[in-house]
Amino acid sequence: MQARGDNLYSAVKAFAESAKLRNAHQRESLGVSNGSDDGQAVFFDYLAWFMIFYSRRIAMALHSIPVIIFLVMPFFSRFLYSGLWCCFATFYDFVKGMILHTTGIMLAIIFPVLFSILRLLVSSYGMNWFANPFLAFMMFIPISLVGLLIPRTVFHGFPLSQNVSVLKVPKEALSDEARFWGAFGFYASVTLAYLLAGLSGGFLTFFTSASMLLAWISFCLSIKFSGRQLARSSVFYVIPLIPCLTYSVYFGGFLVQFLIEKMGMMGSLPPPYGNYVPDIVVAAIVGVVTGWCMGPLMPICGKWLARSSILQFLLHFSVIALALSSQFFPYSRDAPKRVVFQHTFLTADANQIVDSSYDFSVVDSNSLLFLFKYAPELAKELNIGPEFSFETAKMSNQRTFLTLFPVNFLFSRSMQFPARSDEILKQYRQFPHLYTNKPQTMSSDGSRRVYLELSLGSLKEVWVAVLNITGPLSSWSFADTKLPVPETAEGGPPSYICRLTGSSHEKWNFWLEGRNVEDIRVDVAVLDQNLVEEAKKLKSVFPEWTDVTAYSSFLSTYVF
Known about the structure:
Domain Endoplasmic reticulum metallopeptidase 1-like C-terminal: 335-558
Strand content: 15-25%
Number of domains: 3
Organism: Gossypium arboreum (Tree cotton)
Oligomer: single chain
Largest sheet: 8 strands, mixed
Keywords: Membrane, Transmembrane, Transmembrane helix
Strand order of the largest sheet: 5-6-4-3-14-13-9-11
Pfam families: ERMP1_C
Protein name: Endoplasmic reticulum metallopeptidase 1
């Protein structure tokens, strides 16, 4: 929180002190209110050293250059010496090189995905990399490199369309040229796709394309002055790529780390495939980053890396990483498992409890069974035996967690356990309740208006109250009388949901208008951050590798 506050303060201060800060009159006089295109400007930092910024108009020109070079290069390099037919043959080779490079990138993504699925088939749980991010790199980078090198291994001799005898150029030189310009064409095409889609992320592939062009010039000069010495010319190819590769590793590493952190909050997806999604997503992103970082090296350095001994080493390393990963626990104090613990009270009026329960849910792919298995004290407190399973457990639906809307849509396979309600009766005199405070009115078009008042009772620490309204609703007094888009949860009827926040002692007065005389159902859910002593005791037995969001929820239903 301190770091976020520091960042926010610095950003606001920089905006406030900016020399470009103008009022409305200045913007109008300078013509920037309508004519500026900086809203879609391209900006990024390089290794946190300095910022690069250019407008959308400049990006339109810059990001179009790589694909123009790719299209023009076959004719520029062949037309004056070999004629038009040779130009088309050269372009065809470039296209084949681009197809092979694209295939390598795709296999660099597919191989880690298949590897992650295989790992889950032999492992009892997923997300081993969540508390140990280095595992994601150990498991998925080597197998991704194998996929990236497969086209180079299969097509060791490039299928040239050009006539070597006519051009009087070594076949190896033509193969290197086709592979390079094919890879260059891939990154140029991606840059153009970003540009046409109106996105600003094309700077990544533009930087790669520009660096590859400098690397190719260095490579050609090395061959011209020193001959085709493979090691020497490869070094001259790699040196101009170092700034690009450094940035790719820097940016890609942060991207994977950021994604891994978010996987612990992406939601508990339903079976049978929900358990696979986080590992597949992380594996695919690691594959993308690996292809992006290593792809520019493949045209020239691929002949070194595509040796059978290197491929075998990478494959063996991946298998060893697969075996070792199962020895790591997926959670820790610094990377905890998020658990939602709701003490639910079903109320009938201001002072009557109909039912009480403990409801649990998680927000990642390792289900509650994983939690109870590795938290024996919690399982003992809930009287969970060894035969416990989803088939024998009492399940909670998303409506039970209505107070957390819309976060409750992330929950699946939530569980419910019985709880006592006598303690809450001693703690609070009144519970949240809804009632009519005026007689309803009828309009000439047949619609009726119901006047209601919501009391939050004597709750101590109310965070939010949520109304879930089902029925022929045509208008209400909230949000300038505009109805939101209706929500549907777990196959239920469409309903309108409103979140209310305020002090616990305040009462909410509002009206609902229905299109006809049919009943309007209102589900009220109020979140109180205060827990009874029994719930506090249960929360205390959770292991230290969990982060528990615990609260009390008061649910009631009314029909008007």
